């Protein structure tokens, strides 16, 4: 592998979101803090989950939700913008393999997701004393989760031809799966049927495992969650590499 090519593309993707960091980093941090302010004000003192006060319980879920949404947004928005503006052809003309193309876009998405998550965490701990029971698991779920959504973002960017098609992914897949994944509640508070439905949501495993890294308690085993997230990532990566290799919707 020639590292100069993928490094250049990776650096280009980093600069693409960092130069508008007020929109791509600061805005998601502010949105998460507004969620925290509203929900903690309404439910603090009324709800405890696994013996954890509600505000503390809420923060890891908001962090992970923001990590996932921004990792998806980075790769998907970059590809659809390049396709609509017609400059994707200049990237495809370079002697980059489909694997190098994938790794550059994926790495930039992971970085954006982690930067947003770290921003929310640093602001939140100013006001809330947040434990960190298993730092390794916090990092593992954050990296694997952002990699999974970054990969899904590449698939969405490849498939979509217009901005409204991309918006459909965000509004009808990413947002519902995020909000119904246990960010704001424990699934044990749901009726048995909806608990079973929640186990079909891959976002649930990422958020539940990530929360375990902070408090040492979760709805299911973090090892099971990490295995499911890892298997989902490798399955989506395989599909993405097949699409890139075939040139589907990229090479006309």
Could you tell me the radius of gyration in angstroms?
18 Å
Instruction: Determine the N-to-C terminus distance.
Output: 26 Å
Give the helix level as a range of percent. Answer: over 70%
Shape: globular
Kindly give the count of domains: 1
Question: Would you list the SSEs in sequence order as H and E?
Answer: HHEEHHHHHHHH
Question: Strands of the biggest beta sheet: in what spatial order?
Answer: 1-2
Give the total of beta strands: 2
| Stretches with pLDDT under 50, minimum 5 residues | none
Q: Please report the number of helical segments.
A: 10
Q: What profile does the largest beta sheet have?
A: 2 strands, antiparallel
Mean pLDDT across all amino acids: 91
Strand composition percent: under 5%
Structural class: mainly alpha
How would you sum up this structure, described in words?
- The chain has 252 residues and is mainly alpha-helical.
- The protein has helices at residues 4-18, 21-43, 54-85, 88-92, 98-127, 135-159, 163-179, 192-198, 202-215, 222-246, and strands at 48-49, 52-53.
- Strand 1 (48-49) and strand 2 (52-53) form a beta hairpin.
- Helix 2 (21-43) packs antiparallel against helix 3.
- The model has no long low-confidence stretch (mean pLDDT 91).
